[in-house]
User: Fold this.
Amino acid sequence: MNLERFTLIVESYGADSQQWPGDERVEALEFSRTSSDAMSLLDQAAELDQHLALFELPNSELSVQRIEMGILSALKQGTLKQGRLERLFSLV
Amino acid sequence: MVEKDDRRVVERVLAGSESAFRQIVDQHSQRIFNYARRMTRNSTEAEDIAQETFIRFWVSRDRFDPSRVKLTTWLHRIAHNLCIDYFRRRQLQERQVPVQSDSQDSPDTDYELSIRAAVVNKALMTLPERQRSAIVLCHYQNFSQHDAAQILDLSVDALESLLRRGRSKLKQILAKELE
Assistant:
């Protein structure tokens, strides 16, 4: 691990090490404890992470119920036969 | 690739079991709805996208190969493509009938966001779609970089580049808006 790669990781994934690439996490964590530049990068990234955490979604129980009921209703009507709708969609 | 607990359910879905499909809808609908909602910032559109995601998954289930991709990754990939379709449709509509800037985003009216949260929300919406998708998938949906790259059909390097540019732009916007 070097400062260049550590910078790229933190600028991409933020300050939470759980979000970092799994195969580099341990090395990156060790590096962060020994470099003052790394610590400063973590502080800056943590600030943005805190802002991102503000974007919480409100309760959506009713929306989820509507989604599930819509799908159930389509199943009951028998309109979801495999292959039947494929022609209408550009599928993944 | 399929999580251990999902394996039997997926096998049953692939064999055409409606009850197994309902189980998958039950397990994944909240997460798919959240992704669509964060991408569109519109509950009604997000509900439609989530519903369509599962319908497409069901009618084209023979295209899903559980040995190559996780179920949740596959569902998010379908939802992501539907979000892109939604943005294209909206751009076309806006070209035909110019929309007032206040209603362009059709934001949720039930959001009770603090001013700071509203600024963050708005800043996210100003990012290009691919940068926003990358941040939503990694930061909010908690996908690993490998899975997020698979959903967006990108290399991990390209995903990192999107994330870095997206976060940098957000930082600039928020520094200006929140000072």
The CA atoms of residues 4 and 38 of chain A lie 10 Å apart. The two ends of chain A are 38 Å apart (CA to CA). Chain A has a mean pLDDT of 86. Residues 36-53 of chain A form the longest helix (18 residues).
